[in-house]
Structure formats: structure tokens, C-alpha cells
């Protein structure tokens, strides 16, 4: 009876385990920082490619994605149909060279930890362990940056949830949520960059926002997908 109960508890723990996955273009190439973190924490960090993310959404509800910022742009080009800003994924970002803008930070949605290139493996491992335990590990300036932004959004958010947006404007808003540039949006929707800018002007006007960051915040709050 005791054995059955122990096995049941172990299965439940495995189902809800918070596991870090390293998002990489090539899962057969080891990353030295990730390997060092595994050794420090005595855990396994599986490698996952962008093409596997949609399948991962269906199977795992507690996935934490670790990303090498040096290769973020290349990864982002592959996974624009499944943005990293999706709230299902928590993000650990490492190898960051310089301080990111607020708009850049928001592209990662539920960012839980950020590590600059100069930080030690011990510091990164400790932060990752805290994230596994459902804590945040963000530099003080980054945390203050995000707090200031969200306070501003709450204070300035006067747009109603129901806004008379056209189907094309909704498409463009969804593209904005993925972090796509005007040129990328134009390519995806088979329209000119000038037309994209025109639509953005109308979107900002209808939502009573001033820029892309505020439009993305509105979309995250009011749009389901």
C-alpha cells in the first residue's frame, strides 16, 4: 500500500515538475553554459528546437525556456507563429551583452530571469534554481524598468476592451505580438510597408496608444490570440 502511494506521489510530481528546456536551433550541439548549469544543479536540461514548441504546448504546462540571447534573432525568425511572448512559457535569458529596452524585454513575455554575459556560472545556476522554485531572478534595473512600464500602462489604459478594429488591423496586432517588424508584417500579409504604417496609425488612434509597446500591451490584455 505504501509503495503504491509513493509511486502515485512520484507520478504526480513528474506531471507538474517545472523543467528547464534550452531552446536552440540545433539540439545536437551542446552549449557550454547550459552544460555547466546542469553540472552545478545536478539536473538534466533537455534541448528543444523551435519546430518542437507547438508540440510542447500540447504536452507540457510548466515549461521553462532557456535562451541564449546571442542567437535570439535567428530563433525568433523561426518561431514567429509561436511567439516567445506566449504566457505559457516562462523565459530565462542569458548571455545578454547590454541593457535591453523595455520593448525588447516585452518580446519575451513572462521573463523570469535575465543574466548578462559577464555573470558567473554559479550566479546563473543559482538564478535558474530559483526560477524552478517559481521565483524571479531579474537584475534590479530590469525589474524597475518593467514595473515602471506596467504602472504606466495601468494608469494610461483608457481604451475599452471592445474596439472597432478591422480584420486587417487585428491581423497586424497579432503580428505585433510576435515582435515582427513592419517589413516582416508586410511580407507575411502580402502588403506594402507603407500600408502597414498606415494601418498602425489607425490602430494607435483607435486604441488611444502612442506606440507599438502600448499597442502590444493592449493586445495582450484584450486579445485571446
Automatic annotation (TrEMBL):
Fetch the CDD domains from UniProt.
Answer: LuxR_C_like
Q: Does the keyword Transcription apply?
A: yes
Signal peptide, first to last residue: none
Instruction: Enumerate the InterPro entries for this protein.
Output: Sig_transdc_resp-reg_C-effctor, Tscrpt_reg_LuxR_C, WH-like_DNA-bd_sf
Source domain of life: Bacteria
Pfam families for the chain: GerE
Protein name listed in UniProt: Helix-turn-helix transcriptional regulator
Amino acid at each position: 500500500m505504501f509503495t503504491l502511494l509513493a509511486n502515485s506521489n512520484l507520478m504526480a510530481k513528474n506531471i507538474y515538475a517545472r523543467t528547464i528546456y534550452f531552446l536552440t536551433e540545433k539540439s545536437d550541439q551542446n552549449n557550454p553554459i547550459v552544460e555547466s548549469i546542469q553540472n552545478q544543479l545536478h539536473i538534466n536540461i533537455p534541448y528543444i528546437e523551435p519546430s518542437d514548441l507547438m508540440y510542447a504546448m500540447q504536452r507540457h504546462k510548466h515549461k521553462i525556456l532557456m535562451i541564449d540571447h546571442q542567437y535570439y534573432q535567428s530563433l525568433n525568425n523561426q518561431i514567429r507563429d509561436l511567439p516567445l511572448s506566449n504566457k505559457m512559457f516562462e523565459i530565462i535569458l542569458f548571455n545578454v551583452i547590454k541593457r535591453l529596452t523595455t520593448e525588447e524585454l516585452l518580446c519575451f513575455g513572462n521573463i523570469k530571469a535575465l543574466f548578462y554575459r559577464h555573470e558567473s556560472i554559479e550566479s546563473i545556476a543559482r538564478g535558474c534554481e530559483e526560477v524552478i522554485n517559481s521565483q524571479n531572478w531579474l537584475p534590479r534595473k530590469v525589474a524597475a524598468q518593467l514595473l515602471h512600464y506596467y504602472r504606466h500602462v495601468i494608469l494610461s489604459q483608457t481604451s475599452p476592451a471592445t474596439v472597432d478594429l478591422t480584420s486587417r488591423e487585428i491581423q497586424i496586432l497579432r503580428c505585433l505580438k510576435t515582435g515582427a517588424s513592419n517589413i516582416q508584417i508586410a511580407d507575411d500579409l502580402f502588403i506594402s510597408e507603407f500600408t502597414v504604417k498606415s494601418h498602425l496609425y489607425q490602430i494607435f488612434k483607435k486604441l488611444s496608444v502612442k506606440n507599438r509597446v502600448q499597442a502590444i500591451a493592449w493586445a495582450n490584455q484584450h486579445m485571446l490570440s
